[in-house]
Sequence to fold (571 residues):
Amino acid sequence: MNRHKTRIALLPALALLAACGAGGTPEYDVVIRNGTIYDGSGNPPIRGDVAIEGDSIVAVGDIRGGRGEIEIDATGMAVTPGFINMLSWANVSLIEDGRSQSDIRQGVTLEIFGEGSSMGPLNEEMKRQMVERQGDIKYDVAWTTLGEYLDHLVERGVSTNVASFVGATTVRIHEIGYEDRPPTPEELERMKDLVRQAMEEGALGVGSSLIYAPAFYARTDELVALASAAGEYGGMYISHMRSEGNRLLEAVDEVIEIARRANVPAEIYHLKAAGESNWGKIDEVIEKIEAARAEGLRITADMYTYTAASTGLDATMPPWVQEGGHEAWVRRLQDPEIRRRVAREMRTPTDAWENFYLAAGSPDRILLVGFRQDSLKYLTGKTLAEVAAMRGTDPVETAMDLVVQDDSDVSTVYFLMSEENVRKQIALPWMSFGSDAGSLANEGVFLRSSTHPRAYGNFARLLGKYVRDEQVIPLHEAVRKLSALPAENLGIQRRGRLAPGYFADVVVFDPIAIRDNATFEEPHQYATGVLHVFVNGVQVLRDGEHTGATPGRVVRGPGWKGRSSVATAAR
Fold:
């Protein structure tokens, strides 16, 4: 059999009459036969079949007694639960293209949003800014709350399921704006009420991103209060910590403190030790987390499978210059006296804020991948050092100039981490995975900007490079980390396993062929080796090609004031 073209056959009528139940109709909608089944539990695989009826798995094992309307021969293939992207920025890309091409082609069936900022709750000024600050993708803001946004996305049609945390930054901006100050007691109570509303609409918990203004201005007590409000509904706290570099250990302590004081589970977004001088801290980070887990705290983490991070040029500049929001930041960068101060602080080592300019080690390790203005898109794919040389200006001055000229933070890749640490983290039993990227397509508006290759390759890279080629962990453990582990951490019911009664989010891939193809030079390249993907029982990928189906649903958290706990997961 050709490994890359599995057989799908609609059985002839006579065969159906011979093999099926009364009335001559198939007993199942889909049967995936003869696959190597990795059920998500972390146990070694078994050889067998998976039967799907409607949106659910109804049988796993030997299903010789019944046939399916669709039959897939998965001989030699891995059959797994759909993968959960713990940190997705597809919240905008799915508005443009609901097919979720770059993630579906890696087996992702659930996108989790909400790293610090979320698509609601919004006030009128936030809506105005959201429209005004749009880049290549243009869209109407036809919602106000987070729940309304998720419903809006599904009503438009998406191939993956979607879920979200409510952003701690978002509720802060809603009540305080971009000021560097603590909330008043009244403001904090309103922020907590916004969290409660989002939890009742199905948010998974509260997410923070503390290196960025205005999130940087939030103190621990504020975060404990918001996490406690989420905890009233069974939600968790998840954080891009206050530091991943010079104060990495202190930042881990803060996450653990918030979890303890708020009495909630907590997860660290994209765990890393950023900057070569900090690489050696990872062992102590792991010790801190495992000590907290031994104490009984539910502390987990996720990561992406690359040694480069991606954010904006705002991560090279001190938070004080960004107070008041984007317009105030750009205005300040045009003041010669302020520029001199910013330049001095960008070049000076500090523990007071996260300085990616110094953490990268050199401006030739800072890659510019996305501009807002057409006039600057010719610089896409060049390093900050190259652009500075082209212009005959200092790299620090060039960074400030680009922010002003592009009227954006400029999407940027920073080479910060060590390969040894990536492998060490992958092996941790409490580690799951997130792309920290949108789900894109290698066509249309997406080609107007570059991106980090993790948007196209994060999950396939784990299964190809680190599982098959380097054998960092076995495949059954990788599947657990991609499915059941994140589902359990998030409190999501009926997803993350291949078992009767679970939703039919199912992936069939070739473990010998799966690989990431995206590079930093040419990131818009799909991963290969995933052959079939089902979302809620509907086939979205067939023989490696998208079917156009958009069966994705909103997956809501435990606080949703909807129908039932079972319906919560189904919604």
Observations:
- Confidence is low (pLDDT under 50) at residues 1-23, 563-571.
- The CA atoms of residues 82 and 505 lie 5 Å apart.
